[in-house]
Amino acid sequence: MAIDEAKVHEFVGKALGDIGSALTASLVVIGDKLGLYRAMAGAGPLTPKELAARTDTVERCVREWLAGQAAAGYVTYDAATQTYALPDEHVPALVDEDSPACVLGGFQGMTAAMRATSKVEQAFRTGKGVGWHEHDPDLFVGTERFFRPGYNASLVDAWIPALDGVKQRLEAGATVADVGCGHGASTIILAKAFPRSKFVGFDYHAPSIESARERATRAGVGDRVRFEVASAKNYPGTYDLVAFFDCLHDMGDPVGAARHVRSTLAKDGTWMLVEPFAHDHTEDNLNPLGRVFYSVSTLVCTQASLAQEVGLALGAQAGEKRLRDVLSEAGFSRIRRATETPFNIVLEVRA
Q1: d(Cα 295, Cα 285) in Å, to the nearest integer?
Q2: How buried is residue 16: exposed, middle or buried, by Cβ count under 10 Å (0-12/13-18/19+)?
Q3: Domain boundaries, given as residue ranges, for the chain
Q4: Which residues pair with 276 in a beta bridge?
Q5: Which long-range contacts (CB under 8 A, 24 or more apart) does 67-72 make?
Q6: What is the average per-residue pLDDT within 31-60?
Q7: For every residue of the chain, which 3-state class applies, written as one string?
Q8: Average per-residue pLDDT in the chain?
Q9: Do 77 and 260 touch, CB atoms closer than 8 A?
Q10: pLDDT category, 325, cuts 50, 70, 90?
């Protein structure tokens, strides 16, 4: 077989870039946790010694970190003054957790997911999957930090208004279940926006529920929000709105979960189903976003489903057609794509 040496070198260059990206991800998490980015924001050019003094860290370590960050393009370097600076345009992504551009949670969550590599390797051999609860706790924190900026930007102002009559019901006073709520970011955002409504967040992961309760108290919405440990197939109650945020594809039995949602909807109730954006055909998802979603799905989402009953393993790139098949099998007849973002599909689902 004839080998095109130029293509070999081209691919090796790509692979080296990916190795650098993986290593940079760890450096971003370190910079976030040590407050290095926060100390650089708006500070102008700094020497490694000055940044170390601002963050109570070791200058030699900071110097190496800064050089790596400069090589990656995250900070700039001035050779004449031997100083580093964080560009103002990078602050929304690396410092401001209220910005839709914030990427800190993605780095934290994904580096945590990578720590399960040996477990996932074994799951490839056995097919038994890796449960969500089996991952490093940084995955749970990072996932909430990753999704929260998008929910802050879109949930109240765009997604809820796109659902037929739902905003009016919430303003008047409705009952809402947020299933698979994790640390409760989506539940708390809704509770702040619609004070006349009552909200319950459900998740099977008890540590996440404890964290959600603490966050609700800090946010001042503890009087109209409660969080309970329950799965998507057995949570109790009847609701005007049931919401699933980026979690149906993680479930072992999404059809069974959908049937349970149908049984818990009040008359004329709505299910808001938010899932990762994906086209229906694999070839249409072979892009930078698909790369992220397929990769995290390999490490986390598909494994979580395989670790549960049924193990349908929809994956994070299921696409609307596959989702519609699941919903139709569960007995839903009215399914509409209410809106979308570059990262999410929002379906309005009714019986």
Answers
A1: 12
A2: exposed
A3: 5-94, 104-350
A4: 344
A5: 68/23, 68/24, 68/27, 69/24, 69/27, 69/31, 71/20, 72/20, 72/24, 72/27
A6: 98
A7: CCCCHHHHHHHHHHHHHHHHHHHHHHHHHHHHHCCHHHHHCCCCCECHHHHHHHHCCCHHHHHHHHHHHHHHCCCEEECCCCEEECCHHHHHHHCCCCCCCCCHHHHHHHHHHHCCHHHHHHHHHHCCCCCHHHCCHHHHHHHHHHHHHHHHHHHHHHHHHHCCCHHHHHHHCCEEEEECCCCCHHHHHHHHHCCCCEEEEEECCHHHHHHHHHHHHHHCCCCCEEEEECCCCCCCCCEEEEEEECCHHHCCCHHHHHHHHHHHEEEEEEEEEEEECCCCCHHHHCCHHHHHHHHHHHHHHHHHHHCCCCCCCCCCCCCHHHHHHHHHHCCCCEEEEEEECCCEEEEEEEC
A8: 97
A9: no
A10: very high
| pLDDT tier at 1, thresholds 50, 70, 90 | confident
Burial of 165 per CB tally in 10 Å (0-12, 13-18, 19+) = exposed
Could you say which architecture CATH assigns to the domain 104-350? 3-Layer(aba) Sandwich (3.40)
pLDDT band at 324 (very low <50, low <70, confident <90, very high): very high
Structure tokens at 323: 């989702």
DSSP bridge pairs for 271: 242, 349
CA 322, CA 314: separation in Å to the nearest integer?
8
Question: Which two three-digit tokens encode residue 68?
Answer: 């790596």
Report pLDDT digits (tens) over 131-178. Answer: 999 999 999 999 999 999 999 999 999 999 999 999 999 999 999 999
Which residue in 147, 31, 20 sits closest to 91, CA to CA?
A: 31
**CATH architecture group of domain 5-94:** Orthogonal Bundle (1.10)
Provide the sign of the torsion angle of the four alpha carbons 248, 254, 259, 264, taken in this order. Answer: negative
Q: Do domains 5-94 and 104-350 have the same CATH topology?
A: no
Per the CB < 8 A criterion, the answer to whether 301 and 250 are in contact is yes
pTM: 0.94
Cα–Cα distance list, 283 to 296, 322, 344 (Å)? 18, 15, 18
